[in-house]
Structures are given as structure tokens and as C-alpha cells.
Amino acid sequence: MVHNYTEEAVRRALPDVLQEYRLAHPDTCDCQRCREDILALSLNQLPPHYVASNEGTIFTKVSFDQIGGKAQVIAAITNAIKTVSAHPRH
Ligand SMILES: [Zn+2]
């Protein structure tokens, strides 16, 4: 089975980044549709990092380093949140 570490990293980081963003911008929507748009937009900004594995991916901090660092992931998610909240499709 092929996994995309980038997707795993974004899926894990997204709820925290969105929650943090909503503290400063309470009007930001977090419905399922907006979350999926944010996920897709974030992934379009980040390089994929595929790994083949027979078992479930063991995800550690190392994975963030493999895809350019956690800061880059958070920046991509934040950009995506801004774009989606400016033009929500829900
Ligand atoms: Zn929404």
C-alpha cells in the first residue's frame, strides 16, 4: 500500500491549526466541506512524499522533517484556511 506522508501530516495538523486560527478569527467556518477544501488546498501547496508500506504508517515527528518541516505544513494550512474562508463553498 502506498501512503502519502504529506497527506497524513496535513490531516493530523489541520484540526489544531484551524482551532488556533479560529481563536483569532471566530467567524471561520469549520464544517466538513470547508475542512475538506482546506485539506485539498493545503495538499496542492505541498510536495507529496510517498512511501510504500505493508502495514499502517508509523507516523512520527520525523515525517514532518521529510516533507520540509512542520512550519511549512502549518503555513500551507493557514494559507488554505484564508482562501477557503474568503470563498466558502458550503
Ligand atoms: Zn463551511
Q: What oligomeric state best describes the polypeptide chains here?
A: single chain
Strand content: 5-15%
Strand order of the largest sheet: 1-2
Indicate the radius of gyration in whole angstroms: 13 Å
> What does the average pLDDT come to?
89
Secondary structure tally, helices: 4
Order of helices and strands: EHHEHH
Bound molecule kinds, no repeats: zinc ion
Poorly predicted ranges: none
Tell how many strands the DSSP assignment holds. 2
Shape: elongated
Work out the helicity level. 55-70%
Q: How do the strands and helices of this protein lay out in sequence?
A:
Layout: E1 2-4, H1 5-24, H2 32-45, E2 50-52, H3 61-66, H4 70-86
Antiparallel strand pairs: 1-2
Helix pairs in contact: 1-2, 1-4, 2-4
The structure holds zinc ion.
3D architecture notes:
The chain has 90 residues and is mainly alpha-helical. It has one domain (2-86). Helices cover 63% and strands 7% of the residues. The chain has helices spanning 5-24, 32-45, 61-66, 70-86; strands at 2-4, 50-52. The longest helix is centred in the first third of the chain and has 20 residues, at 5-24. The model has no long low-confidence stretch (mean pLDDT 89). It holds the Pfam family ComFB.
